[in-house]
Amino acid sequence: MKALDQNMVNTLCEALWEATAQGNVEFFVSVLQMVPELIWHQNEKGSTLFMHAIEFRQPKIFSLIHGFGSKQAMATETDNSGNNMLHVAGLLAPSNQLNRIQGAALQMQREL
């Protein structure tokens, strides 16, 4: 495969971030199989794709961490604010996900 130009890399990264937020596992895997180094891409805030998966509560995408890259390196990555994966997991889920679940106890169960 020939080298990708910067515009193509930017487009793929943008698509990966959206696929991560939406939980599109098939697209996520397909792109990373073609260009595995994109797994280390960070956005302007310094967040990784796996932090993004945690933020948007996408367990299937997050579970792919076992298949890509170094687990230790991924777990110790921090964003520009000094937050790691555990900090991101402790944040409240996006409101669109919380609104799908009725009742505080069920929301807490889903969060756990």
From TrEMBL:
Q: Name the domain of life.
A: Eukaryota
Q: Which InterPro entries match?
A: Ankyrin_rpt-contain_sf (IPR036770)
- GO cellular-component terms in the record? membrane
Q: Can you say what this protein is called?
A: Ankyrin repeat-containing domain containing protein
Q: What is the originating organism of this protein?
A: Trema orientale (Charcoal tree)
